[in-house]
Write a structure and sequence with these properties.
mainly alpha
Length: about 55
């Protein structure tokens, strides 16, 4: 696996860690960022897997 997927997972964790610190009206932004980075991590892992097949 390349280094992109772990990079995205670290930033997803940071995004989810910011949820309690965010204002109540803007918590969805931190959740959306975390979810987006998880999707990116999954897609890059699939890309890496398909290139090595």
């Amino acid at each position: 696996m390349d280094r992109r997927a772990p990079f995205f997972l670290v930033f997803a964790a940071i995004g989810f860690a910011l949820v309690p610190a965010a204002d109540a009206d803007h918590r969805w932004v931190a959740v959306a960022v975390g979810c987006a980075f998880i999707v990116l991590a999954g897609l890059t892992a699939l890309d890496s897997w398909s290139r090595h097949r």
